[in-house]
TrEMBL record:
SUPFAM superfamilies: alpha/beta-Hydrolases. One of its GO terms (biological process) is phosphatidic acid biosynthetic process. GO terms for molecular function: carboxylic ester hydrolase activity; lysophosphatidic acid acyltransferase activity. This is AB hydrolase-1 domain-containing protein. Residues 86-327 form the AB hydrolase-1 domain.
Length: 350
């Protein structure tokens, strides 16, 4: 059991017409830049790829899709209601492309400027030296640097799986007494959405629950993620990330992109778990939506409840959707829940 637990605890849980006055993105020249991914992701209409240079000299890939002005957007603007920029953060084995597939077009069509970041060592972002991409602090700091230098109004962060845990650290940097020395380094947020997120205590609780209550599932998850077996088994890839009815050719396409997306693990999981839980912030400190999927093979219902309880908000669980909510067959279900929540925030601001 100890060896199984050890092998499981690796980087495995988990991607315009608006005025540009709010955003001043600073792209780097890409003509001479070679692709990190051997299977490139082709952008959709209205999307662009920029590279944000960090203080370290390394660059983050950022996929951009500006919001579209519709009659509804204009109507809300008459009420002096702003649409916060949306910044998306992926989890393990993914990159910015996982958001560009469906959710960037969806939210930009609803008036939101959208920015999907590939964390270091993932997608087309540069790879740091060492055996892993960074820590909660360095990943959150990279996101903060991008926001600080490119986004002129407080954005809303959306994070999936381990991306959700990174956002939780960002929130703690803004509102926890334990990290108050970090506060000035992190731009303010309008809110956050944690999507199938790793709980604030990490993945240890998920591991132990699977080991004792679902040993077969524990073996499958370990083999799929820790041993990366999902990369070579279509059925295991589907079971891990997607709904059972997703067609083979779609699973295959995402499987190939995931193979290419992660050159190094996001974290050293042993050091990560030793640093958790993330520091607590006062209830109501920030508007937060905790969103889960009923058919999630990775983050269970208890994990969803833990995250929601930690932030003093009710969990929202979407039916008939798997872990990769933004890529699954019914990707629009979660997107519509988030949009409704965003609309409520807009009414609150009006």
């Amino acid at each position: 059991m100890a060896s199984l637990l050890s092998s499981f605890r690796v980087d495995s849980l988990c991607g315009s017409n608006i005025s540009s006055s709010r955003i001043s993105a600073k792209p780097r020249a890409v003509l001479s830049r070679s692709n990190h991914m051997q299977i490139p992701y082709d952008l959709k209409q209205g999307q662009s790829r920029i590279f944000h240079k960090l203080p370290s000299g390394l660059s983050l890939e950022v996929l951009v899709q500006k919001g579209v002005v519709t009659e509804e957007v204009e109507r809300r603007k008459d009420k002096n209601t702003e649409y916060p920029p949306l910044v998306f953060v992926h989890g393990s084995y993914h990159a910015a492309w996982c958001w560009a597939e469906h959710w960037l077009p969806f939210f930009s069509a609803s008036g939101y400027d959208c920015y999907a970041i590939s964390l270091l060592g993932q997608g087309e972002s540069d790879t740091p030296s060492g055996s892993n991409a960074g820590t909660l602090q360095t990943h959150a700091g990279d996101i903060a640097d991008f926001i600080n230098k490119n986004v002129t109004s407080p954005p809303l962060l959306l994070g999936h799986s381990f991306g959700g845990l990174i956002i939780q650290y960002y929130i703690a940097a803004l509102g926890s007494d334990q990290l108050r020395e970090m506060k000035n380094l992190y731009p303010k947020l309008r809110g956050a959405v944690l999507i199938c997120s790793v709980p604030p205590s990490g993945n240890s609780g998920l591991v132990w629950r699977y080991l004792f209550s679902k040993p077969i599932a524990a073996f499958k998850v370990t083999r799929s993620l820790a041993a990366k077996a999902f990369q070579n088994s279509l059925s295991l890839c589907r079971e891990t990330f997607f709904s059972a009815t997703m067609e083979d050719h779609i699973v295959k396409r995402y499987q190939e992109l995931m193979k290419e997306s992660s050159r190094v693990p996001l974290f050293d999981l042993r050091k990560l778990n030793a640093s958790l839980p993330v520091p607590k912030v006062p209830d109501g400190f920030l508007d937060i939506l905790v969103l889960g999927a009923r058919d999630d093979f990775i983050v269970d219902a208890e994990g969803l409840k833990e995250t929601a309880f930690f932030y003093g908000v009710p969990p929202v669980c979407v039916e008939a959707v798997a872990h990769d909510m933004m890529l699954d067959i019914s990707w629009d279900k979660g997107a519509k829940v988030i949009l409704s929540w965003l609309n409520d925030l807009g009414k609150k601001d009006a």
